[in-house]
């Protein structure tokens, strides 16, 4: 009788690490993990707004496009903007409380997620950094470091929500059901990354278009999409935010 193949067991010391990377974070825990980005961004926006005859305005950088849109819709009314931000915060809080009652919230994941995202941000910076140094690329940085850090938190949260979860994730899911899955996800990867790069040139806060900076941002979009697909929304959002923060801090040293 042939002997059964021996299954190699994971060493005891590595089991927590292996288990962490094998587990997919549930959606509501993802929501909890990005709440600090949401809070820092919206509290920071309120401290950085400028007042004019047209009302309050938020002058961010080329990555920050959602806040200006919301302010324009409420005609620069800071009370209306605060009410919208407070309403969204309350909705998120209710969802988190519900998740807690269902025992599907894992707040202990916050520190591991933050450490993992920091590692990915450094890897992305090292891989794409050569392109930055070669072509002198980057986003608009006429604002001070505090405003840039606030905008980076918003970019990590909102752009990952729109481009990775909504566009890449949604389009990839739909296409993968109508063609070979790898082809569907590849099309979604390319389309979402191109659109992610292109939106950084929209007026009034966008950069002047150049092919080199477009390619640079497209590569960033590809990297964030791969992280989103393999590790989930929260890690992609934190990686994006930390990458931007590291970039601006280095620019100010």
Structural features, described:
Helix content is about 70%, strand content about 0%. It has about 250 residues and is mostly helical. It has a two-stranded antiparallel sheet. Helix 7 (about 145-175) packs antiparallel against helix 8. The chain starts with 14 loop residues before the first helix and ends with a helix.
What are the main properties of this structure?
single chain; 253 residues; mainly alpha; two-stranded antiparallel sheet; 70% helix; globular
Instruction: Provide the succession of SSEs.
Output: HHHEEHHHHHHH
* Dominant shape: globular
| Unreliably modeled segments | none
Average pLDDT: 79
Q: Say how many strands there are.
A: 2
Classification by helices and strands: mainly alpha
Query: Total number of helical segments?
Result: 10
- Termini separation comes to 69 Å
- Give the count of structural domains: 1
Spatial strand order of the main sheet: 1-2
Largest sheet: 2 strands, antiparallel
Which band does the percent of strand residues land in?
A: under 5%
CA-based gyration radius: 20 Å
Helix amount: 55-70%
């Amino acid at each position: 009788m042939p002997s059964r193949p021996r299954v190699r067991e994971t060493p005891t010391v590595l089991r927590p690490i292996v288990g962490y990377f094998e587990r997919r974070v549930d959606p509501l825990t993802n929501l909890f993990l990005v709440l600090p980005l949401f809070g820092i961004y919206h509290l920071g926006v309120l401290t950085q707004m400028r007042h004019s005859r047209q009302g309050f305005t938020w002058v961010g950088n080329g990555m920050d496009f959602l806040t200006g849109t919301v302010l324009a819709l409420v005609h620069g009314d800071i009370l209306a903007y605060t009410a919208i931000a407070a309403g969204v915060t309350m909705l998120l809080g209710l969802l988190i409380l519900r998740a807690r009652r269902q025992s599907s919230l894992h707040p202990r994941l916050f520190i591991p997620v933050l450490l993992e995202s920091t590692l990915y941000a450094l890897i992305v910076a090292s891989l794409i950094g050569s392109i930055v140094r070669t072509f002198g690329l980057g986003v608009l940085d006429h604002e001070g470091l505090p405003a840039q850090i606030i905008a980076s938190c918003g970019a990590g949260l909102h752009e990952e929500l729109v481009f990775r979860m909504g566009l890449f994730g949604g389009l990839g899911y739909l296409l993968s059901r109508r063609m070979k899955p790898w082809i569907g996800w590849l099309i979604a990867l390319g389309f979402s990354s191109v659109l992610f790069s292109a939106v950084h040139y929209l007026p009034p806060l966008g950069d002047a278009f150049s092919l080199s900076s477009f390619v640079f941002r497209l590569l960033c979009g590809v990297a964030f999409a791969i992280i989103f697909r393999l590790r989930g929304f929260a890690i992609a959002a934190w990686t994006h935010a930390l990458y931007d923060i590291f970039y601006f801090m280095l620019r100010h040293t």
